[in-house]
Specification:
Order of helices and strands: HEEEEEEEEEHEHHHHHHHHHHH
CATH topology of the largest domain: Jelly Rolls
Strand content: 15-25%
Largest sheet: 6 strands, antiparallel
Number of helices: 13
CATH superfamily of the largest domain: Jelly Rolls
CATH architecture of the largest domain: Sandwich
CATH class of the largest domain: Mainly Beta
Shape: globular
Number of domains: 2
Distance between the termini: 31 Å
Strand order of the largest sheet: 1-2-9-4-7-10
Number of strands: 10
C-alpha cells in the first residue's frame, strides 16, 4: 500500500465526523462527503495536508487551491474563507492538520544547516507547495500512531520533529524558520495579530500597533501587509465581521447588536462592510444560515475548532 493510500485508510477509520481531534497532540483529521459552501474561520499556524479531494482557501483578494499533491502552511493566525470543492460519498474529502510548535522548531533550527534572518518575516503567512514523498511518509507514520496509542507519548514527538525537518529544508522552509526566531518580523507581526484578535472591538490606529511591535508605523504597515496579504485595518475588519457573523448565527443577535458588539458605531457602515465580505446583508445572511441546519452547524463548528 502506498503512503497516500495508507493515509486515506487511516483517516477513513479514525475520522469521526467532519473534524476529529486525536490522541496525537496537535493532529486533527477532516472528513467530508460533499462540497461545502465557503466558511469563514481563522487558520492557525499549522501544516494542512489533503489526501483525497480538493480545497480552496481565500485570503483577502488571493485564492489558494490545493489537493493530494500539495500541502499548505500558515505561519500566523489568518482570517480566511475556505471551501471543499471536490468531494463525494464515494470519494470523500480526507485531510489533516498538524500544529506548529515554535519551541520545537527553535530547537531543531540549531541542527538544521539552513540560513534565515529577520527578513524572513516578509514572506506571506500562507503558502502552498508540492508534496514530496519524504514529507508524506513522515506524516503517514505520525497518523499511523493512532493504531498503536501506547506508542504516541514516545514516538509522536520524534516523528513530529522529522516532519518539521522536512518542511524546514523544503520550498517553504524560510517561512517556517521565521516562526522560531524570537525577534523576527514574523513573530512581531504575530504578536500584533494576537493582540488584535483580543482587542478588535476597540479603537486603535497604526501607531498603537507599531509601538506594540517595536517598529515604526511605516515598517509595521509594510511587514504586516506582506505577511497577511492585507493591511492591519483590513485584518481588523475581517476579525470583526467574522465575530459578528458568529454572534448573528450562534448567539441570535440582530444586526445592530452584532455590529455594536464588535466595534461598529454606524449600523450602515457595518451593513456595507458585511455585505462586501459575505455577499449579502447581515440579516439575510443570518436567516439563510439559521434556516439551513447543516450550514449553521458548519459555521459554528468552523469558528469553534479552527
Amino acid at each position: 500500500m502506498s503512503a497516500i493510500d495508507h493515509l486515506r485508510d487511516l483517516i477513513g477509520r479514525h475520522a469521526a465526523g467532519r473534524r476529529t481531534p486525536t490522541a496525537v497532540p496537535g493532529l486533527m483529521l477532516f472528513h467530508s462527503e460533499g462540497r461545502s459552501v465557503p466558511l469563514n474561520c481563522i487558520y492557525r499556524s499549522r501544516l494542512y495536508l489533503i489526501v483525497q479531494g480538493r480545497k480552496q482557501v481565500e485570503l483577502g483578494q488571493h485564492a489558494f487551491t490545493y489537493d493530494d499533491s500539495h500541502y499548505l502552511i500558515t505561519t500566523v493566525d489568518l482570517p480566511v474563507s475556505s471551501a471543499v470543492i471536490e468531494a463525494s460519498p464515494h470519494q470523500p474529502y480526507l485531510a489533516l492538520s498538524i500544529d506548529f510548535d515554535p519551541a520545537v522548531l527553535a530547537d531543531l533550527l540549531l541542527s538544521v544547516p539552513v540560513g534565515g534572518d529577520r527578513g524572513a518575516g516578509d514572506e506571506a503567512g500562507l503558502a502552498v507547495a508540492s508534496l514530496d514523498e519524504a514529507l508524506l511518509d513522515s506524516v503517514r507514520r505520525l497518523v499511523a500512531l493512532l493504531d498503536t496509542p501506547g506508542d504516541i507519548a514516545v514516538l509522536a514527538p520524534l516523528v513530529r520533529q522529522e516532519i518539521y525537518y522536512r518542511l524546514l529544508i523544503g520550498p517553504l522552509g524560510v517561512r517556517l524558520r521565521a516562526i522560531a526566531v524570537a525577534d523576527s518580523h514574523l513573530t512581531r507581526i504575530a504578536r500584533v495579530m494576537a493582540w488584535m484578535r483580543t482587542h478588535y472591538a476597540e479603537e486603535f490606529g497604526i501607531d498603537n500597533l507599531a509601538r506594540l511591535a517595536g517598529m515604526s508605523a511605516p515598517s509595521l504597515f509594510r511587514h504586516f501587509k506582506a505577511v497577511a496579504l492585507m493591511s492591519p485595518m483590513q485584518y481588523r475588519t475581517c476579525i470583526r465581521l467574522q465575530e459578528a457573523r458568529r454572534r448573528l448565527v450562534a448567539d441570535g443577535d440582530d444586526a445592530a447588536e452584532a455590529g455594536f458588539a464588535v466595534g461598529y458605531d454606524s449600523p450602515s457602515q457595518f451593513s456595507r462592510d458585511y455585505r462586501r465580505m459575505f455577499g449579502v446583508p447581515p440579516a439575510r445572511d443570518a436567516a439563510r444560515l439559521r434556516g439551513d441546519s447543516m450550514l449553521l452547524a458548519q459555521e459554528v463548528e468552523e469558528e469553534r475548532l479552527s
